[in-house]
From TrEMBL:
GO cellular component assignments: cell envelope
Main subcellular localisation: other
Domain Periplasmic binding protein: from-to ranges: 45-307
InterPro entries given in the database record: Peripla_BP_I, SBP_2_dom, TAT_signal
Protein name: LacI family transcriptional regulator
Position of the signal peptide: none
Amino acid sequence: MLNRRNFLTAAVGVAATAGLAACAKEDGNSGGSSSGGDKKITLGFSQVGSESGWRSANTDSVKSAAKEAGFKLQFSDAQQKQENQISAIRSFIAQKVDVIAFSPVVVTGWDAVLKEAQAAKIPVVLTDRSVESDESLFVTLVGSDFTDEGRRAAKILEKVLEKAGHKGKVKIAQLEGTTGAAPAIERAKGFKEVMDAEHKDDWEIVVSQTGDFTRAGGKQVMAAFLQSNPDINVLYAHNDDMGLGAIQAIEAAGKKPGKDILIVTVDGVKDGFIAMSEGKINAIVECNPLLGPQLMDVVKKVQAGEKVERWIKTEESDFMQDQAKDALPTRKY
């Protein structure tokens, strides 16, 4: 997988890709809707799907930012299937769009189609998620540091446990994101880094399984967790939607979410904040979905042949239960 920590050091690949975009503009092979003159930039964007509130907010951000920028947006929903995304990218290549952007369903299996885009002299931008691929095949990543989100989740759990006055063994259930997806891999990795370094004697992940980033998946898997491990006292969910589904399963089992089982999630969508204001989620690590303006800025720079950083990060915060009501009115997603 692309190492996000070292992302900014790969300047040579950026310059080469930016130069490729400039050459494409000069020889007229970049696409039917060139950025020159009075013609609109055409952006082909392939979205993962609509699996969560975060993803819906991300889609809205991309669409509204493209409209504001005056771009022609060719949008495709992959419905969480990699084959749909690859097909969409090939369609964008056939349409000769100016730039392709996509949020990869999983990290592997992209080399062939990215090489096709490169051969067609169409620059590619990753949004939200990284890939395991030759870095020369794409310009940049616009998104979050998922490994750091996992670390932050572990650190904020320390505060949650202290505030709850928890004593004794911490038995953690982990609801993972989609298998093979960058946020699932990296959020688990970051959390375990802190756990192994600072809590190897008192914290244990007793059960861990994918809920596929969906509310229904979170509910179903958490119900199974409670059957096999009724003494779970902490839930770490890789996104709010799985955590919200898990709350339903916890309540159905006669337990109190946020008290009998302490809950830490990642994302920061409005429904998550509502649950936190009700005392059902104890803490949320924010992952900002509003990537649209940053993406459009990158597209403009690529079309102008300007240098672009290898990783354009989003700004994020962490929230405890007592901050929920104050923060809720300002939630944009």
